[in-house]
């Protein structure tokens, strides 16, 4: 076994999920993620945790959903009972075809997800972590060779997470003290309120309320959004290519939108429910191990010198205890590049310019623009 | 998709497991059984059942068990809750290496299985069915090409099950009316009591208390076994080749044994517990779609013109309501060929000679021997 696979498993089990003896662990294994699953099983055995592996396959989901009449039972008892009794839920993505469910209608997808809301919420109450095993289909989606993609993925995953967590704590402090964020870039001039919200130092560990591996972002839940934003990082959403999405906000809601490509997908998302017209997340990418877009949200949104915003559901971790944030059946991230001609302000003070934070070398304290 | 895969899924879901709308189904998928899993998912969607797929991998099991200290938690709550809330449990075998767990010690294997006894018993309380997807590793184990193995497997699986069930009902009637069975063949002269026991017409459907696909056997739970038996059908047990096992019984218990190959495996099994020295099953193979041994118990024991006996646990279905049969942590089948120079008697009357039942054409009513 490639030693990097074993290191990936160790980071996932120890740093990310903090697995302990006696933990009941669900390991959701993608069709092509077998090798990582074996390494994770080994680590779980060492820890004396209890392992149940489930199987995640876009082709199985598609076959099931295409054949079903669409009247889905609410929260099937066996699946609900499984997550209710799980301490840890590890999801290892990695299929053979990232477009395997591209021909499932959004109505079917939404009906299925809505019928499982309690299962989803219960799963989000465990120490859950999502990661991916670098597969050939992910390499293809990234326009990369398999070997180069493996290098890329492990650079992003096998970081010094403690050191990155320290750096991200500085940005978190700025956001926690601030009331308003302004993002200015090419095609973008957007203001958002963040007062009363708590930023998450997303250091790829449940100990930081962070549930993705790789991670490396600081995110909060904005509201009262005004202005416009251009998302210039290309993505695939629900199996469709999306490019140069432009959203215009007034008093927190999307009032206009268009896209160079994939506008129908954006329309579907925005029409899901009221919450889908509002932002649920403002995230600032800080993982410099990610040096290019690979059309995979798990990586792209964490990339250093990017900012992302999500339409839809907000995370509880950003909200005061007991307060409900933006609610929606969806949470869809869109990304903008801030490496050039951009600035991020908190209460009028520039904290990042052209991708450099003000505590970094290279930060331009007296710019011409 | 190969149309036979879809037919296999239909037999499994409709004939075998009798899946209905709203059933909570666990589908345990072997690493190489993906294609059948997709077909089963499609059928479950049509039926409006609720699908949760788990992942079965010898490599994952091995990695976990090798790393574990051997002090296993009893019946982990998440796995137990899952089977407690399942109506149907479909297991689709099919790995990449039938010897994937060959280097797990029998102590570890037994400790792991013993710790999960309640999970196992709960699973056996669902409408459970085990089948296999024909894979390259199973073809290899059978010394067959992949294509020839597929033909073989589908001949065994895609039968006219209703018609076979009718034929098997005749043998069941003989056994239910009988008190003593005698099996005579080369190296074998064995008598067993069967009075008070009920034979199962194993027609590959939960409606017949039959849980294997393919099936095609009639089995009961014998006791008070006397005499000796030679199992001349070669097998692999716990990853080891076993050939020409000879058991000698006195008053129901094994008093002597040897084997041309794999005697250590037989010794391990017999030493598991007291019940492992007694028989839990007498089965008579009646599936003539199975025309050769393929070193896979699911098929071999159902083969027409064979008889098998299992050391260990008896099935409740053979016993009067509330009565406990032979108990053991193991149930290991061994097979003998009865196509030549053999006879099976019930209370002194020959019901099968040289593989032919007395209701079949070709049965020799007045033999010289």
From TrEMBL, chains A, B:
One of its GO terms (molecular function) is metallopeptidase activity. Keywords: Aminopeptidase, Hydrolase, Metal-binding, Metalloprotease, Protease. One of its GO terms (biological process) is proteolysis. Its cofactor is Co(2+); Mg(2+); Zn(2+). Gene3D superfamilies: Thermophilic metalloprotease (M29). Pfam families: Peptidase_M29. PANTHER family: AMINOPEPTIDASE, BLL6088 PROTEIN. Belongs to the peptidase M29 family. This is Peptidase M29 aminopeptidase II.
């Amino acid at each position: 076994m490639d030693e990097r696979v074993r290191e990936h498993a160790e980071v996932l089990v120890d740093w990310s999920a903090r697995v302990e003896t006696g933990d009941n662990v669900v390991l959701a294994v993608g069709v092509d993620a077998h090798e990582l699953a074996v390494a994770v099983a080994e680590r779980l055995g060492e820890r004396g945790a209890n392992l149940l592996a489930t199987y995640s396959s876009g082709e199985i989901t598609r076959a099931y959903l295409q054949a079903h009449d669409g009247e889905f039972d609410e929260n099937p008892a066996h699946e609900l009972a499984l997550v209710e009794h799980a301490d840890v839920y590890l999801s290892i993505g990695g299929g053979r075809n990232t477009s395997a469910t591209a021909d499932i209608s959004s109505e079917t997808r939404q009906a299925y997800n809505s019928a499982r809301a309690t299962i989803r919420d219960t799963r989000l109450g465990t120490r859950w972590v999502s990661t991916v095993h670098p597969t050939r289909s992910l390499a293809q989606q990234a326009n990369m060779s398999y070997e180069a993609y493996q290098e890329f993925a492990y650079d992003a995953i096998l970081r010094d997470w403690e050191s990155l967590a320290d750096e991200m704590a500085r940005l978190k402090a700025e956001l926690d003290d601030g009331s308003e964020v302004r993002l200015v870039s090419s095609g973008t001039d957007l203001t958002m309120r963040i007062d009363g919200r708590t930023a998450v130092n997303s250091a790829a560990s449940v100990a930081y309320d962070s549930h993705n591996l790789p991670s490396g972002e600081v995110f909060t839940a904005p509201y009262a959004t005004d202005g416009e934003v251009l998302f210039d990082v290309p993505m695939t959403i629900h199996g469709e290519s999306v490019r140069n999405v432009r959203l215009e906000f007034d008093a927190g809601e999307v009032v206009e939108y268009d896209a160079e490509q994939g506008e129908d997908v954006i329309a579907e998302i925005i029409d899901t429910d009221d919450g889908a017209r509002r932002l649920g997340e403002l995230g600032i990418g800080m993982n410099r191990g990610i040096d290019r877009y690979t059309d995979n949200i798990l990586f792209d949104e964490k990339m250093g010198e990017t900012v992302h915003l999500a339409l839809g559901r907000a995370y509880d971790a950003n909200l005061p205890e007991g307060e409900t944030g933006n609610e929606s059946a969806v949470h869809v991230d869109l990304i903008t590049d801030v490496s050039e001609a951009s600035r991020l302000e908190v209460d009028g003070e520039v904290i990042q310019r052209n991708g450099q934070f003000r505590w970094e070398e290279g930060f331009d304290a007296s710019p011409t623009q």
